[in-house]
Design goal:
The chain is α/β, with parallel strands linked by helices. The chain has two domains: 228 residues, Ferritin (Up-down Bundle); 276 residues, Vaccinia Virus protein VP39 (Rossmann fold). Helices cover 42% and strands 11% of the residues. A nine-stranded mixed β-sheet has the order 3-2-1-4-5-7-6-8-9, sandwiched between helices. Strand 1, helix 11 and strand 2 form a beta-alpha-beta unit. It is globular. The protein starts with a helix and ends with a helix. 37% of the residues are buried.
Amino acid sequence: MTEQNQKQLGTILWAIADQLRGAMNADDFRDYMLSFLFLRYLSDNYETAAQKELGSDYPDISLKTTPSLRDTPPKEGNNSLKERKNSPPSEGWQAKPDGVVSTPMQLWYDQNPDDIAEFEKQMRRKVHYVIKPQHLWGSIAEKARTQDTEMLRTLHDGFKYIENESFASTFQGLFSEINLDSEKLGKQYSDRNAKLCTIITKIAEGLEQFSTDSDTLGDAYEYLIGQFASGSGKKAGEFYTPQQISSILSAIVTLDSQDPSTGKKKHLDSILDFACGSGSLLLNVRHQLNSHGISKIYGQEKNITTYNLARMNMLLHGVKDSEFEISHGDTLLNEWDMLKEANPAKKPYFDAVVANPPFSYRWEPTDALGEDMRFKNYGLAPKSAADFAFLLHGFHYLKPEGTMAIILPHGVLFRGGVEERIRRKLLKDGNIDTVIGLPANLFYSTGIPVCILVLKKCKKSDDVLFINASDHFEKGKRQNRLLPEHIDKIVDTYQFRKEEERYSRRVAMAEIETNDYNLNISRYISTAISEEEIDLGAVNQNLLSTCTKLITHKNSWNLYLATSKM
């Protein structure tokens, strides 16, 4: 599918959302819309796997009528699922009197009641979840199209079944925040059912003309997340990092940490985003290295709804449930048992850490946290701004040869007190590698300019690279944008540690020390264009010459007037 078609699909789905949500809050409607897209993906993936599992016994998709069990001829000698795989498709199916449309999966279930348990056992092993035929997207969409009064109940049962009957914990609670009984959909059951029937029918129609493989649906999902973020204002900061900024962080952490000029790493064992939101930043890193470039992706998210979005987003982009782990919990309190492992030999560390945590988040530093190994050697970030607490959390779990890139407000570069002490220690230990200043108004959640800090535990250079990209952007109506050339310039400058007047500079630690470890970019890079030096002597000569010419011309004019009167 071309990029243009992907964008067209996203635009069509967004138009549907914009048209149908009515007075409903964009955040609420987002959860319904994205969940239905996800159900479509799960159904397609499941039916493809089922077709492989059953082989030629899987009913031909061209068969559209539902058989009655009493009309189905018996199959002799096919007593096991394994034996059925090589048997020819059944013949003699007859339509029920009402001519109900059925999916191939329903046809198989109707004809093979004794083999269903074994089949579902196999599907749990292979795709790690089970969807009953009546819960598949095709069946739900058909019920919606015909305004079936049982559609809502069927959908509710389907979500619960997928969550509770799955093999992997990845699917548990996945639809927990989708309230199908919400009065925002309608006060009565019939109203809610009708509303959802309309939404699902429109989505089904919108998808009909497009390929719906995982990449396509994943891109459409990502596009819708961005659009909903745009309409959510400050709330968007909870779950979405604009793709253009994700691209910068992703490119940085996938380069060789000791010598970025040698290019990208071929493989990462692991990557962590401890404030992962919808997971778009992690997926961007994966895209940089291709689908097999990262052994496992790790993320943590505090908001339960966003946590579910992230898990759906991973699966929709073709990341297998064994290839990622997203944890629900508070990062600052370290509510993840895996990270609290006491045995140093078993404690996880990551090749790359990326993050876009909430800016200047208020938190509750306690004495117990002061003894936490993440903060003990640095001090606790102030109650009014947890920026350095987030940074130290991620940095603690970074491998010695790894790279960390984090988005933070500019205040971390110059604020005093305990933040100055933390900054001073990181600098003295040689852990801050690069400071990148970005333009203002790039985020949906805030108009303030932000910076990217790149940290390493064992960096090669003994200076700090400053990049001032604040004036390099395209102005937009609501948000400013970084164009590909702006992104490439930032990454290229970082990779080759280039210096350019009014844009980038490598600053020795001695100079930073004289500035009391203040990292305010304007102290080291001036963006002011110096005025051309004026030669006052030359200006004076020009003035004298001009005065002489004026006197000469004046005398000539007076002489002309005098002679003309004679």
